[in-house]
Write a structure and sequence with these properties.
The protein has about 180 residues and is mainly beta. The protein has helices at about 30-40, 60-75, and strands at about 15, 25-30, 45-50, 55-60, 85-95, 105-115, 120-130, 135-145, 150, 155-165, 170-175.
């Protein structure tokens, strides 16, 4: 282990993938390395029915494009006229779902959908990506748009809510534990 690479968290960012015969060194998957590779578009994460209705694997850039294309189609695909374009700004942070000391990844993407002469629409999508079974997986997502809000904190605690009109407000709270389970 390279002491210069130690983030002060010890080995809890590693997942044992071992077994086999006694005396053989167990292979490890390092969360930091996988997350860094994903952020550098060198690795893919699994999106199990989160962006599309299928299991798909995306690099970060592919994920941003796939979600942007989905948003344009979902929100504005019914409109006649020119195709809408979008721009995206990506933010990310280390998070710790379930406060178990294992590094996870939170991603927030601000999409600005250019509707030409009409205006621009803003949609913010957030994703939680974890190392599960030795691979990166997106375990949940949430969205901010128009009258709805969705956000999470550094421990995977998620708030979602929104207004259905002048007399209706809905709130939902959930969390993602250290195993990636939606509680």
């Amino acid at each position: 282990k390279d002491p210069a690479a130690d983030n002060g968290g010890g080995d809890e960012g590693n997942i044992e993938n071992g077994g086999g015969d006694e005396g053989n060194a167990a292979e490890t998957v390092n969360n930091d390395d996988l997350i860094k590779a994903f952020l550098n578009n060198e690795a893919e994460a699994k999106f199990d029915h989160i962006i599309t209705d299928e299991d798909d694997y995306y690099t970060l850039d592919e994920m941003v494009k796939a979600q942007g294309d989905y948003l344009v189609d979902y929100y504005f695909g019914f409109e006649e006229g020119p195709e809408f374009d979008y721009s995206a700004t990506v933010y990310y942070a280390d998070i710790d779902c379930g406060a178990d000391g294992v590094k996870d990844l939170g991603i927030k993407i601000n999409y600005e959908i250019d509707r030409g002469e009409y205006s621009s629409e803003f949609v913010v999508d957030s994703f939680i990506i974890m190392v599960i079974d030795d691979e990166l997986k997106c375990v949940t997502s949430t969205e901010d748009y128009y009258r709805s809000r969705g956000e999470f904190n550094k421990y995977g605690y998620i708030f979602e809510g929104g207004s259905g009109g002048a007399a209706l407000w809905v709130e939902n709270y959930r969390c993602i534990n250290g195993k990636g389970e939606n509680i």
